[in-house]
Amino acid sequence: MVWKPNVTVAAVIEHDGKFLLVEEETNEGVMFNQPAGHLEEGETLIEAAIREVQEETAYRFQPEALLGVYHWKHPRKDITYLRFAFIGKADGHDPAQSLDEGILRAVWLTPDEIRACADRHRSPQVLTCFEHYWAGQRFPLSVLTHL
User: Fold this and answer.
1) Domains in the chain, CATH or no CATH each
2) Secondary element (H or E) of residue 49
3) What pTM was computed for the model?
4) How would you label 61-93 residue by residue, b for 16+ Cβ within 10 Å and e otherwise?
5) Is pLDDT above 80 for 38?
């Protein structure tokens, strides 16, 4: 068997001091996450991030920067994730759109609320991404090359 990490994308979206998260059903209960999901065949990382935000929150996402690349091995599963986290703006909300299966709702939370529910984050990557964002970490989208 060949080992391959799961390539995922995530979006950190701020508006008026609050951040867009999704509350979702998981095998470990109801958890919070950034809008996030797997890279699909034939799409760029940026296209994947735009699609995932739309599917999970019903917002259009406009990526502006790369926040970082995060490597995490799940402690109870034989799964390794390689997450590309993007920063950008959301607009064009469609409240009539159905959200992805398992997504209970999209919710805007303050930094204090995000930190207070850390025990309900889908993975440690969630808070790490926010902490990097709050520290001012940013990389231009031009660091990504799609051939």
Assistant:
1) 6-143 (3.90.79.10)
2) helix 45-57
3) 0.95
4) bebebbbbebebeeeeeeeebebbbbbbebeee
5) yes
